[in-house]
Amino acid sequence: MKKLLTGALALALSVSLAACSKSVDPAATPTTPALSTSSATTPSDTMSSGTTDDTGATDTGTTNATAGPVDQATPEAAMTSWLDAMVAGDGNTVCTLMATGGKAISSIPGAAAACGKTITPMLDQIKELGAAFQGLKISGATVNGNNATFESVTTEPALAADVVSSFKAVKIGGKWYVTQS
User: Cis omega before residue 157 (within 30°)?
Assistant: First the structure.
């Protein structure tokens, strides 16, 4: 049962992260300066606030309240916050704690909203696994400069080590973000 639970959660997390990474259109990043020269700057300002996005109803206080506080001071803290948000079904927080291609998803215009909209329905399917991660503690990430791996971490509960071992973290602007690359 333990292996099944671990495998199911690891697969769900990998699929969720991949879905958010794919929802970020790398071609959109170079066109951002062209968009900023137009008079339509209000939507990007709204997106950068983190309080209003295209998904509307998915950015509710109840969803964010269940995930707990976000801590990005260490790779372990970022991973713990990310997993807590995952099992709480808080897609918006999950996306703000992720990076792709060396950039925080939240720093790419429109990407966090697209990610949150994509990932939230998937997270609803793994909420029931949250009890298996009560009191999650991660220690011993291997840090090399602005990159960290979780291959040799110690976790409580122990089954979390199998789940986080395939992920990495990257430090961007003094904060740690979860990534697969």
Answer: yes
